[in-house]
Amino acid sequence: MDPVFLGIVAVLVIILIFLFLYIVPLNLWIRALVAGAPIGIGQLVAMRIRKVPAALVVDALINSTKAGLHVSSNEIETHFLAGGNVNQVIRAIISADKANIPLDWKMATAINLAGRDVFEAVQMSVQPKVIDTPPVTAVAKNGIQLISKARVTVRTNINKLVGGAGEETVLARVGEGIVSCIGSAMSHKDVLENPDSISKVVLAKGLDAGTAFEILSIDIADIDVGKNIGAQLQMDQANADKNIAQAKAEERRAMAVATEQEMKARGTEMRAKVIEAEALIPQAMAEAFRNGNMGIMDYYKMKNIQADTSMRESLGGPHEVKKD
């Protein structure tokens, strides 16, 4: 035969072999078969066509089978297509099975698809987590401020991971409980003498209801004395009362000044009327002379009376002190 033709046939055969091995993951099929988790070759080809990573599914199937769990390849592929993290779910259910925590495939995939780290949740169920609260400020009934920090030990509640409130809600409820407990104390000394009373009261309120966590303990890590809020409020009230009194006094002073100016204007007006009336006296006297109602003697008597009045006023008025 023609050597060129044989070469072309050999190249085509090699290409077909590589194409076959690419489409048919024979190595994965053999690995699953040897591991005791057999999977159909047609299913592997279908995964390759659906662009599902067959190696991921096979590894997850082998791990679950070796751990004694019953998870099918279809369930694993379905979870991958739904956007879940297959490795995280497989590790979670294996860890839960070893720790005797009831967690099946359906619950684990639901938690994973809800956006939570299901493997971390299982680990937290085995080894509780300690959460430090930020400084919580509260005021006792005697007005003294206390600043406390607490450590909350929580364990994951697997059954409430889907739809349950998160870590922030637990911290907010614990902070609210601390504020309420300190606020109900008659004196800050009572709290300082027995800080465990805060933990007992807050823990007894069942703050983990509706959350994805179970509160195991609440410990007061630190508590400091802050400001005397009661005294500060009294000082602020006294300053406010003083400012109000000053404002009212200023209002009365302004009204008095306005009244004084009004009376001065009225006095000036009355003096103008007196001057106007006095200007009419010479005319009235001239009219009395012309009509014969007043004689020359009457005129001089009036002048004498005016002179006597002026003398008495000068004698009875204030004397100026002459300086030597």
Distance between the termini: 161 Å
Question: What is the overall shape?
Answer: elongated
Helix content range of the residues, please?
Answer: 55-70%
Work out the oligomeric state of the chains in this entry: single chain
Low-confidence stretches: none
Order of helices and strands: HHHHHHHHEEEHHHEHHH
**Biggest beta-sheet profile:** 4 strands, antiparallel
User: Radius of gyration, rounded?
Assistant: 52 Å
Question: What's the number of helices?
Answer: 14
Topology (elements, then pairings):
Layout: H1 3-23, H2 26-34, H3 41-49, H4 54-66, H5 73-81, H6 86-98, H7 105-113, H8 118-126, E1 129-132, E2 136-139, E3 144-156, H9 167-183, H10 188-193, H11 196-203, E4 213-228, H12 229-278, H13 281-291, H14 296-316
Antiparallel strand pairs: 1-3, 2-3, 3-4
Helix pairs in contact: 2-4, 4-6, 6-7, 6-8, 9-11
Describe this structure in words.
This protein is 63% helix and 11% strand. The chain is an alpha+beta fold. The chain has helices at 3-23, 26-34, 41-49, 54-66, 73-81, 86-98, 105-113, 118-126, 167-183, 188-193, 196-203, 229-278, 281-291, 296-316, and strands at 129-132, 136-139, 144-156, 213-228. It contains 14 helices and 4 strands. It is elongated, with a radius of gyration of 52 Å.
